[in-house]
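Researcher: I'd like a structural prediction for the single chain below. Treat it as a standalone chain; there are no partners to consider.
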Amino acid sequence: MAGTYPSAYAIARVNLRKGYLLALVTIFGGLSLLLVLPFLQYVLGAILVAFVLHPLQKRLAPVTSPTISALALVLLAIVGVLVPFVVVIGMVAGDAAQLVERIDPADLQVSELEETIEETTGYEVDLAQELAESAEEIATAVIDLSAAWLGLATHTLIGLGLTLFLLYYLLKDGTEFVAWLRETTPLPEEVQDDLYRELDEVMWAVLAGHVLIAIVEGVIAGLGLFVTGIPNATFWTFVMVILSLVPLIGAFLVWGPAVAYLVLTGEPLLAIGLFVYSAIVVGVADDYLRPIVVDRYAELSPAVIILGVLGGIYAFGVMGIFFGPVVLGAFAATLSVVDDYYDRLEDEPEAGSG
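Model: Treating it as a single chain, here is the predicted structure.
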């Protein structure tokens, strides 16, 4: 009996050491998460762009060097992604401002509305004065929020700088990081191979099969708006690109009302042309091009995409448009790998045993 005490003591000591290490991992993992959360959007953006540019990095690095190729791809991302994005946002903001400027106060018929209120309620109101006072209060609130806007602008600039910084190192040292991750993960090589392959297919399915198709579909639908003379077509094209991320519904929420607008403004031929163009050309892009691209990688149900996009926006903000469907697809891929390997992991002997 006495011989069992050292063994029990040794086991308890080993468990204490493991528990201490797990506690350290939990503590520092939580603290690290607190550091990342303020810039989560920008970190996710860097990961997304690095994933897209990684195949180019693999081809360029042996020819030049990992440092030079990573720097060149960061410059490519600035010219090909960041600058066009800023230009498009500027054009959209300009169109949105024009929409606001077109609101004529005379069209509001304030005097007639005042008379109607007085006849109905018996109270005399001065809506013009109320609107003026409200405008003054809004202006005061905007001035008070100027410091907050300045802070937001500063945070955005810092975040964009962080994105470019992370992108450079993800491209330059991404292969080494994945190798370290594989060594650290306590799973057999074949399990990790299948898991990373499934995750890679899901990521490309979302990017190529839904994001890229949404951009193509939105731009194609936007051409119809430009040709038929729909006001602020740039703004509505941007809206259709975003809406096209949601399968089945997509751009119809814009071009459908645009057809009605042309009918109401006395342009029935343009309305028919826009309807036929949008229903056929845009419909073909959604019904045929999307499945072709998706089937090349991983098949994701439209329900997964809709839930992922909407839920991802609430969970991750703007980047949730991309990462929401990826998370759901990755969960399904992980379940598939678990189903294939779980029983075999129980039977597999540990390294160094025997």
